[in-house]
Amino acid sequence: MKLLVVVLLAAALPGELAQSLTAWLEANLGRPYVWGATGHKSYDCSGFVWRMLTDNGVFLKRTTARKLYMATEPAAQPDFGTLVFFDDLKHVGILQDQRSFFHASSSQGTIRAPLAPYWAPKIVGYRRLPVAGDEPRPTQ
Asked: How many CB atoms lie within 10 A of CB 64?
């Protein structure tokens, strides 16, 4: 089994990381969807999440939404930055808050979208961002 390698740059504090993620997300809205793309000009859903993490000092192997779900820990309290998974683990995004999330939409590109009414019933689960102190887990 391969291990998901996770390292957070020591210089980034949680507050600084949140500010950095917010700025990155805002700067990358409006990019087109391209299957398999990891940015900076276009993204697919898991490429969008991977690039956001990588550009903000969280390094992990580029993988699918399903494998990312299996390799990360459940989020007890979903809030900003929590990974949100949909549609039988075929789609992933990043929560902005309890009502909206960022993702790479196949029809609209990278956007901030409301969870309700379309996405909320498709939620499979929430996972924590892999940050310092998290132990890597085998992917399945």
From this structure: 15
